[in-house]
Amino acid sequence: MKPSTLEQLCEMHTNLSSADIQIISEVASTLPMYADLLNAYMFIDCKMKENEQAIVVAEAFPRTPEAVYENSVVGKVVFETFEPGVYYCYRTGKKSIMHRALTQEGKMVEQSVVPIKNKQHQVIGALIMEAEVMASYSEKKQEPTHSFGQKAMSNLLANTMDEYPVISDLLMEIFLLTDAEDRLVYANPSGVRFIHEISQTEYIQNEPILKLLPFLDPILNQQEEVFVLELTLAQKSLEVKKVKLRNKKNELQGTLFIIQDLTELRTKEKELMMKSVVIKEIHHRVKNNLQTVASLLRLQMRKGFPLESKSHFEDTLNRIFSISSVYELILANDNADDDDVDLIELTRKIGSTMVINDLNQKVDLIIEPNGNKILTSSRKAVSIALIVNELVQNSIKHAFPGGISGEIHVDFFSSKDFVELHIQDNGVGMGEAGYSLGLEIVHNLVVNDLAGEFRYRLVERGTYAILTFPLSPEVVIYYEKTDSDR
Questions:
Q1: In its keyword annotation, does this UniProt entry include Transferase (predicted)?
Q2: N or C end of the chain, less CB within 10 A?
């Protein structure tokens, strides 16, 4: 007879004997009946032989129109973080009734777990019943708005309900409870493993807490009723919370310690910090490299070149300065991770560093933010910097021939979905637009980088260019006026 999927999974991934697999198979044959009877999702998980994880070997779904699980999860690995009740069942041999768990598809369910045992009373599998949380909530007409269950919790802590796990048994944090003489009277599974690892002591119940964990001494002796301290122990980063427990007569009953292992979190923070340093160093190098290129161009200009090449050198310098301005603003941020650029400040910086043909030309650059503070990512900021540079440079070069004075207005407008950048001069006008490298750069950047639109507006005097691009996660507006400034 061809082996079933359940048998194949058990033989491949578990250490179960043939007799154990037979018991699991017999339980699995009843799952469809219970799934329909209880209107719940039924599973069997078995512990894997390679590691401490579990694997789903059988399942049955109720025949309902709304499905919690859209696909089969047989063969999927079960992690303790999402389903601690399964691992509690394996470790203690006790059932875990109606607690929360996260499904393989990310949905919250209420889960009950019962151990499956062989004839030797060994746990060989976990029988799981799950019901979607929202379904049970919809049946409740009113939800309490205050805390409740203090009496039930006291019963749990007093060990009068041994069949039910204490809530802390299902958590990854370490819970330790001492009596008034500072002897350990309770430790959840995470706490037991932690003490065994740190103290190398087999017998821990009713032992002095400071004998088991000497590093708690300065925390225990703190006068505060509630005290929190972060410390490093054996290359572990720990956050220790201490709460003194008192009765109604204000007599000390014991102390609760909650210890959270922050090692992984602190490691990731260090990695992010190193990443931030590296990114900032890259920004520095890009800016310095751009300044080096600009210096080489200036040196070439001083050495001499054909007069017809002068404008090309100046155009190139302005483009380099525009990109460099983006990185200067990023490096000015206090937060190394923040690469957002203020477009109004960027435009002012571009205008102040722009190289023009005639240094005696009297042209005023007027920037109007119109109540908006627009922040964008460095990627989009580079594109906008080049666009502003090209349009302002065109106005400076062509709108005011013969050294006549004039003004160039740069205005930022915003609506619900779009940002508009208007650049207008009061010069002689551009006439019929022909081909130029600058305008080609503008069109390509607007369409390809900003997913926007570029056009000219017909005016009686001067040139009026409008750039429109959509808001996105990379473009954020602060202090925006209620009405669009038109």
A1: yes
A2: N
Mean pLDDT across 57-82: 79
CA distance linking residue 224 with residue 240, whole number of Å: 14
For residue 424, the model assigns a pLDDT of 92
pLDDT bracket for residue 309 (50, 70, 90): confident
18 — pLDDT class (breaks 50, 70, 90): very high
Nearest alpha-carbon partner for 81 in 170, 149, 148, 9: 170
pLDDT at position 321, please?
A: 82
Axis-axis angle for helices 437-444, 378-398 (nearest 10): 150
Secondary structure, 3-state, the chain: CCCCHHHHHHHHHCCCCHHHHHHHHHHHCCHHHHHHHHCCEEEEEEECCCCCCEEEEEEECCCCCCCCCCCCCCCCEECCCCCHHHHHHHHHCCCEEEEEEECCCCCEEEEEEEEEECCCCCEEEEEEEEEEHHHHHHCCCCCCCCCCCHHHHHHHHCCCCCCCCCHHHHCCCEEEEEECCCEEEEECHHHHHHHHHHHCCCCCCCCEHHHHCHHHHHHHCCCCCEEEEEEEECCEEEEEEEEEEECCCCCEEEEEEEEEECHHHHHHHHHHHHHHHHHHHHHHHHHHHHHHHHHHHHHHHHHCCCHHHHHHHHHHHHHHHHHHHHHHHHHCCCCCCCCCEEHHHHHHHHHHHCCCCCCCCCEEEEEECCCCEEEECHHHHHHHHHHHHHHHHHHHHHCCHHHCCEEEEEEEEECCCEEEEEEEECCCCCCCCCCCHHHHHHHHHHHHHCCCEEEEECCCCCEEEEEEEECECCEEEECCCCCCCC
Kindly report the CA angle at 120 between 115 and 124, in degrees rounded to 5?
35
- C-alpha distances in angstroms, 440 versus 357, 373, 390? 21, 28, 10
Asked whether residue 298 carries a pLDDT value surpassing 60, the answer given is yes
- With tokens 């100046």, the residue in question is 314
pLDDT at 142 over 70: no
**d(C-alpha 451, C-alpha 462), whole Å:** 27
- CA dist 136 and 179 (Å) reads 38
Domains of the chain and CATH, by start: 5-138 (3.30.450.280), 171-261 (3.30.450.20), 266-478 (3.30.565.10)
What's the rounded mean pLDDT across residues 149-153?
40
Residue 365 has pLDDT above 80, yes or no: yes
Q: Residue range 222-248: average pLDDT?
A: 85
pLDDT recorded at residue 31: 92
At 99 the pLDDT is 63
Model confidence at 450: pLDDT above 80: yes
Confidence at 246, pLDDT banded by 50, 70, 90: confident
